[in-house]
Each structure stands twice: as structure tokens, then as C-alpha cells.
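stage 2 :: seqdesign
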């Protein structure tokens, strides 16, 4: 590593600004560095900037998670509602990087919403503002229970602009405003805002983060209400001590679960560790599940929902339902415990996203290694072995190359007519699903997988008691079961040592693809096979050098006759054999008169010779028909 390249490590270490990363390149250019050195230095700069961006993103996510857990800890020890709400508003303003943040609460008696806490505000008129339901951005959020965002409030026609509201907003100098509802169940109790005195665009992640703080604020208000009700009960009911103990127990359990979830996250635990910690705190059985029955019971708004004697909280991220936490056999659940279950679901979603990111990164690395084996066989074997070892793959053992493709209804573009947007989206989705399933299978078998040529290629180790045909059938069965689709798999002959000599891999992949195409043409979609399973056709696939010659020798006169005269003898011949050599069934398949079939067969007999229907000749002709169809399909 050169001194200039090492300077990027120094910049990363001291957390330098983005502009500082241009200096090593500028200095090198000023010192007369050559194009190759400048290109290397520019590449190092881009890598350093990517690392810096990743570190910044991680620090930001850590800060957000830390703030959320600090807020949860505040709730667990709630004493002063105003102090908790102020802390929530301050943290929201800091993390979103806005100039102003504020919180309003609904006044059911007056039918409007009023400012409760502000941070960064300088206008007394703004701090005392009241908004009618449906008026302004905040009134619309309070009325519709939906978040609203604008990058220029005064230019946005969606909101009901009143003189009172616009004057207060103008006094404060606000331009970009984001508001999210504070919800208790299905009831809106207020709005949490973040705003800037300049135009800006709020990202989806920032909207979600403010929504999390709003949920905490709602819990704080709800908890404060519960405590107020408890104090009232102390004066009015003889069961005051019991109520206090119950609510204290709930708060203690909330504090305990947040402490435990924090510990789970910090020690790198998984979703089942979250479920185990929650089971102890809630005194019940909590499970993580992705079954359709439990997922159907989840709510779309992120709240825990009672389902029979169980409670179900959705584990979701970015609108995608990843699973659910289910509290079994606990029908009477305290509201705070409900929110504890919901917070645990949120933590579970974060853990799942982190695990998915790590998994996707590993699969990409597996795919890149297989691409290098296919496209760059001259790579250093030592480096190949080191990369394979990091993926727990032994590339010195015999391996088989497999080509896989989804062959369910509509999977073949040739069967769907003119391709459209839906067709292209379906094909793309199928390729992604197949790659994902194949990558998982390869990881469990210490192999490699990559998306290629509209399908997926796998490189799997061959066990001592397995054959390449066995491996193809197992792979087709496993991928088909995972995707619930017909997945066809063709296998190559074994490659003795992919790391020691990668050069045969590209040829093995071509052989596997030819086997895959043969299976589809033979009507064996959804199966797996190697060339050895396909008899004489398999021998041709293993050494395809003279396939065109075989077709020409066997039925070349018929193909040439069709080409010169525009006739349909090849199609007639194929239909004749497919119908069991019955002219009557052939004419039904071709929708022509039986005399037309007879005339075409007579012409075929003159071209191929009088013995063309004998068992030996007909077998060769049928094989040539299949090979001709394969070559036409590949050409198109």
C-alpha cells in the first residue's frame, strides 16, 4: 500500500469531512503521478468514501436505536409526563437534524388540537397556536390519523390554510414540515412534528423514525393517564393498593423487558432469544412464527391484536411482513404489556433485517466467486482456495455444475406470445426467487450459486455415494419444493478439482445447460437429470460436435425442402410420430384434411427413402426431430 493510499486510512480514522478525500488525488496529480497511479488512487478514494458512508450510516442507526431505547427507559421510570415528552421532542429534533420540533395534543372538549411541547421555537404566537380539526398540516394529520409531509408548506394546496395558522407558521419561519399522529389504539390523541426553516425532503426512514417517537409519546401519555386513574382510585376505592401493585408490576415488567432486549441486541442474539426473554417477562409462551395462519391475524398498523386466546404482533419492515411474535394462551393482557409485545416485534424486525443483510452479502460473494470460476479460469488457485475457505467450500473436492430454471405455467417466454410489462416483471421475479432459493441450498451444501443466462447455475460438491444424476434430481426436488414451482435441473459430468483447474467449469456449465434444454424439449420439465440419463441423446449432449451433421444426414432433405418451398413437412413428421403414426390423429392435430396428410407423408417417403418408418429409421428420425427443434429454439 502506497503512502497516498494509506492517507485514506488516516482520514477514516480521524473522521475527516468528505472534501478532504480529494486532497491525496490532487497532491498526486500535482506531483506528476502517472495515469495508472492516479486510477489506483481514485479507486482507493471511492472505497474509502464507501467505507465512510457505511460507518456514518451505522453510527446514525446506532444513535437512533440508542435514542429509542433511552426513550423506552424513560417510559419505564415515568414520573413527570412533561419531562418525558420534552425528551422525546428533543431527541426527534436532534436525530432528524431539524431546526424545530413540537408536539400537539387533541382537546376533545374544544374539538381542536393545541401545542403541548416545542423545541427550537422562537415565536410566542406559534407556541400558543391551536388548530381546528382538518386545518393546516397538523389538523389534517389529527383528523385523518395519517402522516403528512411537505417540502414547502405555503405552496402546498393539500392543506386548509387559515389566516391564524399561516400567520403563526410565517412568524416561526417554517417551510418544510413533517407531522405524524400519536395513536392510542385507533384514536388520535395528538401530533408530533419536525420542521425546518428551509425547503427539504424528508426520507421514508425519517418518517418512520418520527413515527417511532410518536408511538413512545403516545405510550407516555397513556401511561400517565393510567397513573392518574390509579391515583384517583386510591381516594375512591378500597382496592387502591392492589391497583398500585398491578400497575407497578406492569411498569417493572416493561423496564425489565427493555433491559433484556437491549442485552439481546448488544450480545448479537437472534429472534428466538428475543422471544425467550419476552416469555419470562410476560409470564407466558412467546414464539416467532411465519405461518400463514398467524400472519393473517396481524394488524396493518403495527399494534398487537388479540386472536382467540393469543396475542399477535406483526414483525415488519418497509411494508414487508417478515413474521409475527405470538403470545400463547394469555387473553387478558395489560395495555402496557401489549405495547411491550409491540416494541419487541420492532426489535425483532431490526434483527431480521440485519441477518438478511449479512445473508445477502454472503450470497453475493458466493455468486462472485462462481462467476470468476466460469469467466476467468486463469485466476491464482491459491487465491481461489482462500476465498472458498471463507465461504466454507472445499474446491479441491469433485464438484458438479448444475443449470436450473423455473418451468412452471407461463415461465417460458415463447409460450406467452408477445412479451409485455407483466411478463417481464414475472420473469424477473422468477429469476430472483430461483436465485434466492438456490443460494440458500448452495450455502447449506457448502457450494456456490449465481444468477446466469435467465436461470441459475450451481456448483455443488459430489458426495462419495452420489452420482451427478442423483444430485440433479435432489436439486430439482428441493428447489421445486421451496418455490412450489416446476424447477428443471441439468447436470454436468464431475469436475475433479475446481480450485486446482477451473478451466473445465465453463464447458461443464455449457453441458449442463444443453442437458436442461433437452429435458424441456423431451417434456420432462420439473425433473433433474445428467447426460447419462438421456441415452443416445445424452451422448450427443456430452460431445455436441456433430449434432448438426447427424440432423442433416437423418432428415436434411425434409428440412431443405421446407426451407426452399415454404412447406410444413417437418411439422407434419413431428405430429405423425407424436400421434403414434396415425394419419387420422395427425390430421386432427394439424387441422388439415386426411388426404393432405397422406400427400405430405408420400412426399416425405420419397425424400427419406422407403424404409423411413422402420423401427430403427423412425427412432433416428424422431431423435433428429428433437435435436432440430432444440437447435431452432436455441437460435431464437
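stage 2 :: out
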Amino acid at each position: 500500500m502506497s503512502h497516498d493510499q494509506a492517507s485514506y486510512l488516516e482520514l477514516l480514522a480521524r473522521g475527516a469531512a468528505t472534501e478532504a478525500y480529494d486532497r491525496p488525488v490532487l497532491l498526486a496529480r500535482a506531483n506528476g503521478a502517472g495515469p495508472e497511479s492516479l486510477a489506483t488512487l481514485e479507486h482507493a478514494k471511492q472505497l474509502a468514501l464507501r467505507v465512510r458512508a457505511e460507518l456514518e450510516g451505522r453510527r446514525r442507526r446506532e444513535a437512533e436505536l440508542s435514542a429509542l431505547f433511552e426513550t423506552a427507559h424513560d417510559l419505564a421510570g415515568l414520573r413527570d409526563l412533561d419531562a418525558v415528552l420534552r425528551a422525546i421532542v428533543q431527541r426527534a429534533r436532534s436525530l432528524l437534524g431539524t431546526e424545530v420540533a413540537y408536539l400537539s395534543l387533541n382537546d376533545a372538549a374544544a374539538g381542536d388540537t393545541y401545542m403541548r411541547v416545542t423545541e427550537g421555537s422562537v415565536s410566542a404566537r406559534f407556541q400558543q397556536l391551536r388548530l381546528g380539526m382538518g386545518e393546516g398540516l397538523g389538523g389534517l394529520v389529527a383528523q385523518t390519523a395519517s402522516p403528512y409531509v411537505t417540502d414547502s408548506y405555503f405552496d402546498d394546496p393539500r392543506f386548509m390554510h387559515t389566516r391564524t395558522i399561516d400567520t403563526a407558521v410565517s412568524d416561526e419561519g417554517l417551510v418544510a414540515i413533517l407531522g405524524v399522529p400519536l395513536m392510542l389504539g385507533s384514536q388520535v390523541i395528538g401530533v408530533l412534528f419536525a420542521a425546518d426553516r428551509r425547503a427539504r425532503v424528508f426520507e421514508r426512514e425519517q418518517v418512520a423514525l418520527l413515527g417511532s417517537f410518536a408511538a413512545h409519546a403516545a405510550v407516555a401519555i397513556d401511561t400517565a393517564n393510567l397513573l392518574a386513574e390509579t391515583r384517583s382510585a386510591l381516594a375512591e376505592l378500597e382496592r387502591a393498593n392492589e391497583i398500585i401493585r398491578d400497575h407497578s408490576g406492569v411498569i417493572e415488567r416493561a423496564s425489565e423487558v427493555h433491559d433484556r432486549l437491549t442485552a439481546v441486541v448488544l450480545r448479537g442474539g437472534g429472534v428466538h432469544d428475543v422471544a425467550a426473554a419476552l416469555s419470562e417477562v410476560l409470564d407466558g409462551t412467546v414464539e416467532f412464527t411465519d405461518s400463514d395462519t398467524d400472519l393473517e391475524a396481524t394488524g396493518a398498523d403495527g399494534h398487537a391484536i388479540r386472536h382467540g386466546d393469543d396475542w399477535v404482533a406483526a414483525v415488519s419492515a418497509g411494508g414487508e411482513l417478515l413474521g409475527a411474535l405470538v403470545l400463547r394462551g394469555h387473553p387478558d393482557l395489560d395495555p402496557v404489556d401489549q405495547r411491550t409485545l409491540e416494541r419487541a416485534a420492532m426489535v425483532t424486525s431490526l434483527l431480521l433485517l440485519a441477518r438478511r443483510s449479512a445473508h445477502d452479502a454472503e450470497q453475493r460473494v458466493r455468486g462472485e466467486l462462481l462467476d470468476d470460476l466460469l469467466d476467468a479460469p486463469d485466476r491464482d488457485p491459491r487465491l481461489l482456495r482462500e476465498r472458498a475457505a471463507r465461504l466454507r467450500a472445499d474446491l479441491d473436492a469433485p464438484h458438479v455444475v448444475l443449470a436450473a430454471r423455473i418451468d412452471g405455467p407461463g415461465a417460458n417466454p415463447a409460450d406467452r406470445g408477445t412479451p409485455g410489462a407483466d411478463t417481464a416483471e414475472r420473469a424477473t421475479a422468477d429469476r430472483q426467487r430461483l436465485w434466492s432459493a438456490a443460494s440458500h441450498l448452495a450455502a447449506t451444501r457448502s457450494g456456490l450459486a449465481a444468477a446466469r443466462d435467465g436461470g441459475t447455475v450451481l456448483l455443488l460438491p459430489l458426495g462419495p455415494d452420489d452420482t451427478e444424476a442423483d444430485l440433479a434430481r435432489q436439486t430439482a426436488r428441493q428447489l421445486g419444493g421451496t418455490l412450489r414451482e416446476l424447477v428443471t435441473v441439468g447436470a454436468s459430468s464431475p469436475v475433479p478439482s475446481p480450485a486446482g483447474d477451473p478451466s473445465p467449469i465453463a464447458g461443464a456449465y455449457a453441458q449442463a445447460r444443453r442437458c436442461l434444454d433437452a429435458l424441456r424439449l423431451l417434456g420432462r420439465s420439473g425433473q433433474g437429470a445428467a447426460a447419462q440419463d438421456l441415452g443416445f441423446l445424452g451422448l450427443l449432449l456430452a460431445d455436441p460436435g456433430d449434432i448438426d451433421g447427424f440432423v442433416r444426414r437423418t432428415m436434411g432433405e425434409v428440412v431443405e425442402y421446407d426451407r426452399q418451398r415454404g412447406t410444413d413437412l417437418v411439422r407434419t413428421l413431428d405430429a405423425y410420430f407424436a400421434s403414434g403414426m396415425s394419419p387420422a390423429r395427425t390430421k386432427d392435430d394439424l387441422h388439415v384434411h386426411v388426404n393432405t396428410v397422406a400427400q405430405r407423408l408420400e412426399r416425405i417417403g420419397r425424400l427419406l427413402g422407403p424404409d423411413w418408418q422402420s423401427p430403427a429409421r423412425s427412432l433416428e428420425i424422431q431423435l433428429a426431430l428433437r435435436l432440430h427443434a432444440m437447435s431452432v429454439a436455441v437460435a431464437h
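stage 3 :: structure notes
- The two ends are 50 Å apart (CA to CA).
- The chain has a mean pLDDT of 79.
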